[in-house]
Amino acid sequence: MEPHVSHSVADGVATVVVNHPAKRNAMTADMWRSLPPLLAALAADPAVRVLVLTGEGGTFCAGADISSLRGSSELAQDLAVRAEDALAAFPGPTLAVVRGHCVGGGCQLAAACDLRFADEGASFGVTPARLGIVYPSSSTRRLVSLVGPATAKYLLFSGELIDAERALRSGLVDEVLPGGELDKRVAEFTRTLVSRSRLTQAAAKEFADGRTDRDAYWAEQARAGGDTAEGVAAFLERRRPHFTWTAPSAPSAAVPASPPPAGPWHPAPPTAG
């Protein structure tokens, strides 16, 4: 089977799967290119409340399939950053589910998700220093926002892999589960997310990501949307709430209009992909 990115939608959850198991799910140029339009389509689907990103089989993503990227390194960088930015811009909650290697471009994608749950055997690495290339400024800022400057520098300066427990302590990962419990926990958590107010989640995601010009917009949405009244009524009546708010026009997860930062891309080292 050709390397590809597949998806399915069930019970409000879109599951996007990186599928290139022959090379530890390393990303080809075509796979990077396919992500932004796929994410845009899922963002526009009213049936999708939550997005899960994972890898086929026992690994998440070992970076770039270097053999498929013999052309311009700047073009390869553009493809990766555009995919990362589209994932970060997805309007609903996003969750990376990590097993095995999460390295290079794979770690870049995981960091672009809102949350990351990992198998206890997972390993993480940001590896440009192994190849003498420059990590994108937007990706660096995103990494720093998760783990802080010191840990980001440790990862970037050394290119070393860290285990799931250290990733948890650093803030790169939100939960670490034994292998047999990861799928159960993800299913439980995504059901919880689907049951919560989309209004609250959408506003919280914008605010947490640093947007400061939409307070009035979200206040108006809260007044007009009905979720607040429904949540209070359900609490007083001791029943589950039935939230109904939907965005008047959902933000697009398409490729940003402005070009991503230029510079050489950071494929995974040969040992990781």
UniProtKB/TrEMBL annotation:
Matching CDD domains, A to Z? crotonase-like
Q: Which InterPro entries is this protein grouped with?
A: ClpP/crotonase-like_dom_sf, Enoyl-CoA_hydra/iso, Enoyl-CoA_hydra_C
Q: Where is the composition biased (Low complexity)?
A: 247-256
Q: Which Pfam families match?
A: ECH_1 (PF00378)
Tell me the segments the record calls region Disordered: 246-273
Q: Name one GO biological process term.
A: fatty acid beta-oxidation
* GO molecular function annotation: lyase activity
This protein's UniProt keywords: Lyase
* Compositional bias segments (type: Pro residues): 257-273
Question: What family does this belong to?
Answer: Belongs to the enoyl-CoA hydratase/isomerase family.
Q: What protein name does the entry list?
A: Enoyl-CoA hydratase
Q: What species is given as this protein's source?
A: Streptomyces fructofermentans
